[in-house]
Amino acid sequence: MPWDTIKLNDGRSIPSIAFGTWKLGNGQGPTDQVDQAISVGFSHVDTAQAYRNEAEAGVAIRESGLARENIFITTKYSGLDGLDIPTSINNSLKNLGVTYVDLYLIHHPRLAVPDIPTAWKQMEELKEKGLVKSIGVSNFGVVELGVLLASAKIKPAAHQIMLHPYVYATQKPIMEYGAKHGIVTEGYSPLIPITQLPGGPLDEPLKTIAKRLSATSDQVLLAWVKAKGAVVVTTSSKRYRLEGYLRAADFALTADDISALDEAGERGARSFTARKYLRRLIVLPLSAAVAIGLCSYMGLDVF
Q1: What whole-number distance in Å separates Cα of residue 9 and Cα of residue 149?
Q2: Among 32, 184, 195, 247, which residue's beta carbon has the most beta carbons within 10 A?
Q3: What positions carry a catalytic annotation?
Protein backbone atom coordinates (compact mmCIF):
# COMPACT_ATOMS: atom_id res chain seq x y z
CA MET A 1 0.00 0.00 0.00
CA PRO A 2 1.24 3.53 -0.71
CA TRP A 3 1.61 6.36 1.77
CA ASP A 4 -2.05 7.33 1.66
CA THR A 5 -3.51 10.46 3.16
CA ILE A 6 -5.06 10.39 6.63
CA LYS A 7 -8.32 12.14 7.39
CA LEU A 8 -8.11 14.87 10.03
CA ASN A 9 -10.91 15.76 12.44
CA ASP A 10 -11.52 19.06 10.63
CA GLY A 11 -12.36 17.30 7.38
CA ARG A 12 -9.03 17.88 5.67
CA SER A 13 -6.44 15.21 4.86
CA ILE A 14 -2.72 14.97 5.60
CA PRO A 15 -0.10 12.99 3.62
CA SER A 16 1.07 10.16 5.86
CA ILE A 17 4.79 10.74 5.30
CA ALA A 18 6.62 14.06 5.59
CA PHE A 19 10.13 15.26 4.87
CA GLY A 20 11.42 17.03 7.97
CA THR A 21 13.89 19.92 7.98
CA TRP A 22 14.98 19.66 11.63
CA LYS A 23 18.79 19.76 11.91
CA LEU A 24 19.24 20.69 8.23
CA GLY A 25 20.52 24.13 9.18
CA ASN A 26 20.19 26.99 6.73
CA GLY A 27 21.72 28.17 3.47
CA GLN A 28 21.63 26.31 0.19
CA GLY A 29 21.78 22.87 1.83
CA PRO A 30 18.19 22.66 3.11
CA THR A 31 16.86 24.16 -0.12
CA ASP A 32 18.61 21.44 -2.11
CA GLN A 33 17.42 18.71 0.25
CA VAL A 34 13.79 19.82 0.24
CA ASP A 35 13.98 20.08 -3.54
CA GLN A 36 15.35 16.54 -3.70
CA ALA A 37 12.64 15.19 -1.41
CA ILE A 38 9.90 16.76 -3.51
CA SER A 39 11.51 15.44 -6.70
CA VAL A 40 11.41 11.83 -5.44
CA GLY A 41 7.75 12.07 -4.42
CA PHE A 42 7.38 13.70 -1.00
CA SER A 43 4.37 16.04 -0.98
CA HIS A 44 4.52 17.00 2.71
CA VAL A 45 7.27 19.29 4.06
CA ASP A 46 7.61 19.71 7.82
CA THR A 47 9.53 22.70 9.18
CA ALA A 48 9.39 25.05 12.18
CA GLN A 49 10.16 28.57 13.27
CA ALA A 50 12.94 27.20 15.49
CA TYR A 51 14.68 25.37 12.64
CA ARG A 52 15.46 28.72 11.00
CA ASN A 53 15.10 27.26 7.51
CA GLU A 54 11.51 28.11 6.58
CA ALA A 55 12.78 30.48 3.89
CA GLU A 56 15.02 27.81 2.39
CA ALA A 57 12.16 25.30 2.38
CA GLY A 58 9.94 27.93 0.79
CA VAL A 59 12.35 28.45 -2.09
CA ALA A 60 12.39 24.72 -2.85
CA ILE A 61 8.60 24.50 -2.63
CA ARG A 62 8.06 27.43 -4.97
CA GLU A 63 10.67 26.19 -7.45
CA SER A 64 9.21 22.67 -7.47
CA GLY A 65 6.56 23.71 -9.95
CA LEU A 66 3.85 22.04 -7.87
CA ALA A 67 0.56 23.84 -7.48
CA ARG A 68 0.12 25.16 -3.92
CA GLU A 69 -2.74 22.73 -3.25
CA ASN A 70 -0.49 19.79 -4.16
CA ILE A 71 2.09 20.41 -1.43
CA PHE A 72 1.25 20.11 2.27
CA ILE A 73 3.24 22.48 4.48
CA THR A 74 3.58 22.07 8.23
CA THR A 75 5.36 24.64 10.37
CA LYS A 76 5.41 25.35 14.08
CA TYR A 77 5.20 28.20 16.55
CA SER A 78 8.44 27.93 18.52
CA GLY A 79 8.40 31.22 20.44
CA LEU A 80 11.46 32.32 18.44
CA ASP A 81 12.88 35.69 19.56
CA GLY A 82 10.05 35.97 22.10
CA LEU A 83 7.51 36.70 19.37
CA ASP A 84 3.84 35.90 19.92
CA ILE A 85 1.71 33.53 17.85
CA PRO A 86 0.03 36.11 15.53
CA THR A 87 3.38 37.75 14.72
CA SER A 88 5.13 34.42 14.29
CA ILE A 89 2.67 32.98 11.78
CA ASN A 90 2.93 36.10 9.62
CA ASN A 91 6.71 35.82 9.70
CA SER A 92 6.49 32.13 8.80
CA LEU A 93 4.17 32.84 5.87
CA LYS A 94 6.57 35.51 4.63
CA ASN A 95 9.55 33.15 5.01
CA LEU A 96 7.78 30.34 3.18
CA GLY A 97 6.41 32.65 0.50
CA VAL A 98 2.83 31.39 0.84
CA THR A 99 -0.50 32.82 1.94
CA TYR A 100 -1.36 29.92 4.26
CA VAL A 101 0.13 26.79 5.80
CA ASP A 102 -1.71 23.51 5.90
CA LEU A 103 -0.85 22.67 9.51
CA TYR A 104 0.41 24.96 12.28
CA LEU A 105 1.57 23.45 15.57
CA ILE A 106 2.50 24.78 19.00
CA HIS A 107 5.98 23.28 19.20
CA HIS A 108 5.97 22.54 22.95
CA PRO A 109 3.53 23.14 25.83
CA ARG A 110 5.97 25.47 27.60
CA LEU A 111 5.61 27.83 24.62
CA ALA A 112 1.88 28.19 25.23
CA VAL A 113 2.05 31.51 27.08
CA PRO A 114 0.62 32.91 29.22
CA ASP A 115 -1.24 29.59 29.38
CA ILE A 116 -2.49 26.82 27.13
CA PRO A 117 -6.13 28.05 26.79
CA THR A 118 -5.02 31.56 25.79
CA ALA A 119 -2.44 30.32 23.31
CA TRP A 120 -4.88 27.86 21.80
CA LYS A 121 -7.50 30.57 21.34
CA GLN A 122 -4.92 32.47 19.26
CA MET A 123 -4.36 29.34 17.17
CA GLU A 124 -8.10 29.04 16.61
CA GLU A 125 -8.22 32.66 15.45
CA LEU A 126 -5.50 31.95 12.86
CA LYS A 127 -7.60 29.12 11.47
CA GLU A 128 -10.70 31.31 11.38
CA LYS A 129 -8.74 33.94 9.43
CA GLY A 130 -7.59 31.34 6.90
CA LEU A 131 -3.88 31.82 7.63
CA VAL A 132 -3.68 28.15 8.60
CA LYS A 133 -5.91 25.34 7.41
CA SER A 134 -5.44 23.03 10.41
CA ILE A 135 -4.03 23.52 13.89
CA GLY A 136 -2.35 21.17 16.32
CA VAL A 137 0.35 20.71 18.92
CA SER A 138 3.68 18.98 19.44
CA ASN A 139 5.34 17.29 22.43
CA PHE A 140 2.28 17.64 24.69
CA GLY A 141 1.49 15.12 27.40
CA VAL A 142 -1.93 13.79 28.39
CA VAL A 143 -2.32 16.43 31.10
CA GLU A 144 -1.53 19.30 28.71
CA LEU A 145 -3.88 17.89 26.07
CA GLY A 146 -6.60 17.69 28.69
CA VAL A 147 -6.12 21.32 29.66
CA LEU A 148 -6.30 22.34 26.00
CA LEU A 149 -9.41 20.31 25.20
CA ALA A 150 -11.24 21.62 28.25
CA SER A 151 -11.48 25.09 26.72
CA ALA A 152 -11.02 24.44 22.99
CA LYS A 153 -13.65 25.36 20.44
CA ILE A 154 -11.59 23.57 17.79
CA LYS A 155 -9.82 20.33 18.64
CA PRO A 156 -6.20 19.87 17.60
CA ALA A 157 -6.11 18.07 14.27
CA ALA A 158 -2.67 16.55 14.87
CA HIS A 159 -0.14 15.97 17.61
CA GLN A 160 3.52 15.52 16.70
CA ILE A 161 5.67 13.48 19.10
CA MET A 162 8.81 11.37 19.04
CA LEU A 163 7.85 7.86 18.01
CA HIS A 164 9.90 4.69 17.70
CA PRO A 165 9.74 1.32 19.50
CA TYR A 166 12.04 2.36 22.35
CA VAL A 167 9.66 5.17 23.40
CA TYR A 168 6.39 3.54 22.38
CA ALA A 169 5.44 2.33 25.86
CA THR A 170 5.78 5.90 27.14
CA GLN A 171 4.02 7.49 24.17
CA LYS A 172 1.21 4.94 23.89
CA PRO A 173 -1.07 6.58 26.52
CA ILE A 174 -0.64 9.94 24.75
CA MET A 175 -1.48 8.36 21.38
CA GLU A 176 -4.52 6.58 22.82
CA TYR A 177 -5.76 9.78 24.46
CA GLY A 178 -5.36 11.62 21.19
CA ALA A 179 -7.12 8.90 19.21
CA LYS A 180 -10.03 9.06 21.66
CA HIS A 181 -10.47 12.70 20.67
CA GLY A 182 -9.85 12.22 16.96
CA ILE A 183 -6.33 13.70 17.03
CA VAL A 184 -3.91 12.21 14.49
CA THR A 185 -0.45 11.34 15.80
CA GLU A 186 2.63 12.37 13.84
CA GLY A 187 5.85 10.56 14.72
CA TYR A 188 9.24 12.20 14.37
CA SER A 189 12.70 10.60 14.77
CA PRO A 190 11.42 7.09 13.91
CA LEU A 191 14.88 5.84 12.95
CA ILE A 192 16.65 6.59 16.25
CA PRO A 193 16.92 2.84 17.11
CA ILE A 194 19.35 2.35 14.21
CA THR A 195 20.90 5.81 13.86
CA GLN A 196 21.60 6.61 17.52
CA LEU A 197 20.92 3.44 19.53
CA PRO A 198 22.33 0.52 17.52
CA GLY A 199 23.21 -2.65 19.37
CA GLY A 200 19.98 -2.75 21.37
CA PRO A 201 17.20 -5.38 21.62
CA LEU A 202 15.57 -4.12 18.42
CA ASP A 203 18.49 -5.09 16.21
CA GLU A 204 17.56 -8.77 15.99
CA PRO A 205 13.82 -8.48 15.19
CA LEU A 206 14.53 -5.67 12.75
CA LYS A 207 17.10 -7.82 10.96
CA THR A 208 14.80 -10.86 10.91
CA ILE A 209 11.77 -8.96 9.62
CA ALA A 210 13.82 -7.04 7.05
CA LYS A 211 15.33 -10.26 5.70
CA ARG A 212 11.91 -11.90 5.31
CA LEU A 213 10.44 -8.89 3.53
CA SER A 214 13.56 -8.15 1.45
CA ALA A 215 13.51 -4.74 3.08
CA THR A 216 15.95 -2.65 5.12
CA SER A 217 15.78 -1.96 8.86
CA ASP A 218 14.84 1.68 8.28
CA GLN A 219 11.96 0.60 6.03
CA VAL A 220 10.74 -1.77 8.74
CA LEU A 221 10.76 1.03 11.32
CA LEU A 222 8.77 3.32 9.02
CA ALA A 223 6.32 0.51 8.29
CA TRP A 224 5.95 0.06 12.07
CA VAL A 225 5.03 3.74 12.50
CA LYS A 226 2.54 3.40 9.65
CA ALA A 227 1.05 0.33 11.32
CA LYS A 228 0.47 2.43 14.45
CA GLY A 229 -1.67 4.77 12.36
CA ALA A 230 0.74 7.68 12.67
CA VAL A 231 2.13 10.11 10.12
CA VAL A 232 5.87 9.56 9.58
CA VAL A 233 8.18 12.57 9.79
CA THR A 234 11.67 11.64 8.62
CA THR A 235 14.62 12.98 6.68
CA SER A 236 17.78 12.07 4.79
CA SER A 237 20.27 13.80 2.54
CA LYS A 238 20.58 10.63 0.43
CA ARG A 239 18.26 10.30 -2.54
CA TYR A 240 18.31 6.49 -2.47
CA ARG A 241 17.27 6.51 1.18
CA LEU A 242 14.35 8.83 0.49
CA GLU A 243 13.26 6.56 -2.34
CA GLY A 244 13.49 3.64 0.07
CA TYR A 245 11.41 5.49 2.64
CA LEU A 246 8.65 5.94 0.08
CA ARG A 247 8.77 2.22 -0.78
CA ALA A 248 8.45 1.33 2.91
CA ALA A 249 4.68 1.77 2.63
CA ASP A 250 4.60 -1.36 0.46
CA PHE A 251 5.80 -3.57 3.33
CA ALA A 252 2.94 -4.89 5.46
CA LEU A 253 4.00 -6.02 8.93
CA THR A 254 2.17 -8.91 10.55
CA ALA A 255 0.70 -8.74 14.03
CA ASP A 256 3.62 -10.92 15.19
CA ASP A 257 6.11 -8.50 13.63
CA ILE A 258 4.55 -5.56 15.42
CA SER A 259 4.43 -7.42 18.74
CA ALA A 260 8.09 -8.43 18.39
CA LEU A 261 9.13 -4.83 17.78
CA ASP A 262 6.94 -3.54 20.61
CA GLU A 263 8.35 -6.07 23.08
CA ALA A 264 11.96 -5.47 22.02
CA GLY A 265 11.36 -1.75 22.28
CA GLU A 266 10.03 -2.09 25.81
CA ARG A 267 12.99 -4.24 26.84
CA GLY A 268 15.33 -1.68 25.40
CA ALA A 269 13.60 1.18 27.20
CA ARG A 270 13.98 -0.66 30.53
CA SER A 271 17.62 -1.38 29.78
CA PHE A 272 18.41 2.20 28.85
CA THR A 273 16.64 3.48 31.97
CA ALA A 274 18.57 1.04 34.18
CA ARG A 275 21.88 2.06 32.60
CA LYS A 276 21.08 5.74 33.05
CA TYR A 277 20.22 5.16 36.72
CA LEU A 278 23.40 3.11 37.22
CA ARG A 279 25.52 5.87 35.69
CA ARG A 280 23.99 8.33 38.12
CA LEU A 281 24.77 6.02 41.05
CA ILE A 282 28.37 5.81 39.90
CA VAL A 283 28.88 9.45 38.95
CA LEU A 284 27.40 10.99 42.10
CA PRO A 285 29.74 9.20 44.58
CA LEU A 286 32.72 9.90 42.32
CA SER A 287 31.80 13.57 42.13
CA ALA A 288 31.39 13.67 45.89
CA ALA A 289 34.78 11.97 46.38
CA VAL A 290 36.47 14.47 44.07
CA ALA A 291 34.83 17.38 45.89
CA ILE A 292 35.84 16.03 49.29
CA GLY A 293 39.38 15.43 48.06
CA LEU A 294 39.59 18.97 46.72
CA CYS A 295 38.31 20.41 49.99
CA SER A 296 40.84 18.35 51.92
CA TYR A 297 43.64 19.55 49.63
CA MET A 298 42.56 23.13 50.29
CA GLY A 299 42.47 22.51 54.02
CA LEU A 300 38.72 22.84 54.34
CA ASP A 301 36.89 20.71 56.91
CA VAL A 302 33.70 19.36 55.31
CA PHE A 303 32.70 17.05 58.16
Answers
A1: 14
A2: 184
A3: 51
